[in-house]
Amino acid sequence: MVYGRAMATKDSREVVIEATPEQILDVIADVEATPTWSPQYQKAEVLDRYDNGKPKQVKMTVKAAGLTDEQVIEYTWADDKVTWTLVSANQLKAQDAGYTLTPEGDKTRVRFDIAIDLSVPLPGFILKRTIKGGVETATEGLRKQVLKVVKGG
Asked: Entry's InterPro entries (predicted)?
């Protein structure tokens, strides 16, 4: 009998933010501040940085769907995107996510993609709801935080 590997759960969403890609990436790069605008992140600590100061490896304490997890993720930065992949976690087997930024005049279209593979069984509807909430925060929450930072509020 062959057991297929559980499929990763994927989601994506777009949001238009009244800021430049650089301003948006700066907010994403300020990972220590993430818990202030993304409620599922309780703590974020930079373990390693690239030469340009952007975070490379980050340890995060994440609480979602009643589970608390310690995750280490590794970022890859470009001028118009940032992606990250899971290095280690207790509850997740894999996580690949990222933002792709497309300038539109004085605004930027931001697409967020995420794929996660859990190592603990969780009912499908709970998993979907949890990811949907995370994706909403990753777009709408990011937008609010960027506008706050850009407007100096």
From this structure: Polyketide_cyclase/dehydratase, START-like_dom_sf
- Residue-wise pLDDT for 65-108, tens only, equals 788 999 999 999 999 999 999 999 998 899 999 999 999 999 99
**Secondary structure of 46-110 in HEC code, one letter for each residue:** EEEECCCCCEEEEEEEEEECCEEEEEEEEEEECCCEEEEEEEECCCEEEEEEEEEEEEECCEEEE
CA 90 to each of CA 61, 62, 117, 138: distance values in angstroms, whole numbers, following the listed order: 11, 11, 12, 22
* Span 9-150 CATH architecture: 2-Layer Sandwich (3.30)
Distance CA 32, CA 124 (A): 31
Q: What is the H or E stretch that residue 37 is in?
A: helix 34-37
| Domain regions of the chain by residue span | 9-150
Tokens read off for 17: 């933010």
